[in-house]
Specification:
4-stranded antiparallel sheet, 6% helix, mainly beta
């Protein structure tokens, strides 16, 4: 799927791309509410044919939509802490550290998660006081009316959470500290527990040199930290019940700055489709012959971003009925 103009823009248009012809065959206008129209929006991540949109500046998830059916569900912003806080106050006194969207087969529910850094509110002898920061996580079940706290203790490390990636009923973030890729935090939507995943070998990489996404049914890390001479693509695979990283592709002799490219998906012929940032082109890479071919996407005049998307005719009305 393509989105014109890139992240943070006000474009409402998403294009479904025919992978075989590399040509858009359908386009959709996203159902933006007033909040997204005024702040700009970003595609947080997609899951099972549904797309979660968030405010661009703070990644606060606002709505979930199905571009195929043109249905959407607005995500409530009810605060579930120990004290009722007005919307304006909760926004000004809270910080969203990370957010993501996914599915639990165990409960058959779509869920949205937020990791929060709210201020601790105390009641002392002098009245209401603001104390220290205490991080926690909240989950929203699609079709319900409010958020609830996750009993699992949220990660407290002072990292930036990048590239929310849905993979096998988990949402995963690449964690960056001091501009270095440190580890991966994973949240399981089935048991609602967090886990720390070790990154690929030689992982103390400049955060500007990595990308993380789902690729070929695996969690994938793209690393171009080797003095921009080549780009390594790592996939997490299961070996005898153990999850291990395996380097599957090394791209050499790239004519652009390696930091500007991002894998999208493997094609049926085994070739790799990549996006070139700030470009109007997609690139198909044959890793066996170490050759690449450029494709200008017809029908789109502006710059775009691309992400993997599998269409689904699932009705959001059925989800709401099942969770009421």
């Amino acid at each position: 799927m393509l989105r014109s103009d890139g992240p943070g823009s006000f474009s409402r248009t998403l294009y479904l791309l025919d992978i075989a012809k590399l040509k858009p065959y359908s386009e959709f206008l996203l159902p933006l509410n007033q909040e997204l129209e005024s702040s700009g929006f970003d595609v947080l991540n997609s899951c099972n044919g549904l797309v979660c949109l968030a405010r661009f500046l703070d990644k606060n998830p606002v709505l979930v939509c199905n571009p195929i059916t043109q249905e959407h569900i607005q995500i409530p912003r009810k605060f579930t802490g120990s004290r009722t806080i007005s919307r304006i106050e909760s926004e000004s006194e809270s910080e969203i550290v990370a957010s993501g969207f996914g599915f639990s087969s165990k409960s058959n529910q779509f869920k949205v998660i937020k990791i929060m850094n709210p201020r601790k509110y105390n009641y002392g002898s002098t009245g209401f006081e603001i104390g220290s920061y205490i991080r926690y996580a909240e989950v929203y079940i699609l079709g319900t009316s409010s958020w609830r706290k996750v009993t699992e203790f949220a990660p407290q490390s002072l990292h930036s959470f990048l590239f929310p990636t849905y993979w096998k009923e988990t949402i995963n973030w690449a964690c960056v500290k001091d501009d270095k890729f440190d580890n991966i935090i994973s949240f399981d939507f089935d048991n609602e527990r967090f886990e720390i995943i070790s990154p690929p070998p030689r992982h103390r990489t400049d955060s500007n040199c990595i990308r993380m996404q789902e690729l070929g049914g695996c969690l994938s890390v793209c690393d171009c930290s080797s003095f921009s001479k080549y780009l390594d693509i790592w996939l997490m695979k299961d070996f005898s019940g153990k999850r291990l990283w395996r380097k599957v592709i090394t791209i050499r002799m790239w004519p652009f700055e390696l930091k500007s490219i991002e894998p999208i998906t493997f094609l049926n012929n085994g070739k790799l489709l990549l996006m070139v940032h700030d470009s109007k082109n997609l690139v198909c890479y044959n890793h066996l012959l170490e050759k690449f071919k450029y494709f200008k996407v017809s029908g789109i005049q502006s710059y775009f971003e691309a992400f993997s998307f599998v269409p689904n005719f699932l009705s959001l009305k059925d989800i709401v009925k099942g969770n009421c």
